Each structure stands twice: as C-alpha cells, then as structure tokens.
Amino acid sequence: MTKFFACIFAAVFASAALFAQTPEEIITRMDLAMDAFDDQGCAMVMDIKIPILGTISTQMYVLGDKSKAIAEVKDNKLITWIDGTTQWTYESDKNEITISNTDPSNESDAESNMKLLDGVTDGYDVKLKKEDAAAWYFHCTKQKTNPRKDDPKNMDLVVSKATYLPISVKVSEKGVAVTLRDFAIGVNEKDITFNAADFPTAKIVDERK
User: Fold this and answer.
1) pLDDT of 135-177, one tens digit each?
2) Cα(122)–Cα(152) distance, rounded to whole angstroms?
3) What span, in angstroms and rounded, lies between the C-alpha atoms of 192 and 186?
4) How far apart are the first and last CA of the chain?
5) CATH number 2.50.20.10 is the correct assignment for the domain at 21-206
6) Torsion over CA of 121, 36, 103 and 172, rounded to 10 degrees?
7) DSSP-based three-state secondary structure for 201
8) How far apart are CA 203 and CA 209, in angstroms?
C-alpha cells in the first residue's frame, strides 16, 4: 500500500511539472490573450503619481480608431472623445465642449498606452519575483542592447492566472510613477462615441477649420 501511494504522489508531481511555466511562456500566453484587444477593444485605468500633486487617475477606453478618456482633477471632470479625425473635450467646471480637428497620424494617449502593451517585455530581462493563487509578479529590467532610449529602466508587471491578461504594469522615472491597471476586454462602440444629447446645457466651442 505504501508503494501504491508513493506511485500516486510521483504521478501527481510529474503532472504538475508538465504544467509548470517559465516566465517566457507566461508572457507569450499574455500576448496571445491581448490579441483580443484588437477586435473587441479594451478598457483600463492609468494612474500618474506626481510628487506634491498626488495621483491623477484616468479611465480609458479604446476600440479601433475610437477612444474615450475620463479624468477628474480636483473638482473638474475632463472627458475626451477621439474618432481619428475629430476630438471632443468636455470640461465640467465650464460646462463647455470644445471640438477640434485631430491629425490622423497622431495617436491618442489611450491608443499609445495600448501599444505600450504590445510586446511590453521586448528588450527586457523578465524575472518572476513571486506568485500567489491569483497572479504572477514579474520585475523587468531593460537590457543594455535595448535600442529604445525612451523605455524605462525597470518595470513591474502583474499577470492574471485566470485570464493571462495583465493586472497592472508600473513604471517609475524621475520621481513620477505611471501605473496601467484594471484591464478588461470588450468595449461598446456606443459608450465611446460622443453624443451631444448627453450634454444638453453645455456650451459648444467649435475650433475646426
């Protein structure tokens, strides 16, 4: 009987070894999971922590060439919609909407942040710091051969074990910490499309030429 249980435990540990994943395998699966962003869109929160000023949080939504960003600074809510050619900006303290042209070749902040996650660990050495039942915690160090000068030297990445999507990405440079978090797949186009009827009392300032 003892020999029987020994064989069972050996089989269990052998099976567990088969499911063990290296950091590279986990990151590869994360990249595959994030491919859904292209078709279904993505929502996320960006926190910017600045000394003295504190933390500013912005909720972002991206779907194709459309994006929406919602930020609150003190008592003012700032909402920006972009559809690739036009930008609408609502400022709650003025109850005013400014409409302007955009350069199609320029990306919105939301789109830029999404692209940061495309191959986010390229040019980095990735080390698994720890893991728990819910996530893997990685520390990424910029490689000396990384040709991108603007890439931060260090980055902390947390990946969900349930979805393989990033839970958060955090970088710190010159005292300013930027964290992308609360990623979710799936954005309704209606929810990120500007609708003037939602702001019936707002003043419209059209700066388009």
Assistant:
1) 999 999 999 998 888 888 899 999 999 999 999 999 988 888 9
2) 12
3) 12
4) 85
5) yes
6) -30
7) coil
8) 18
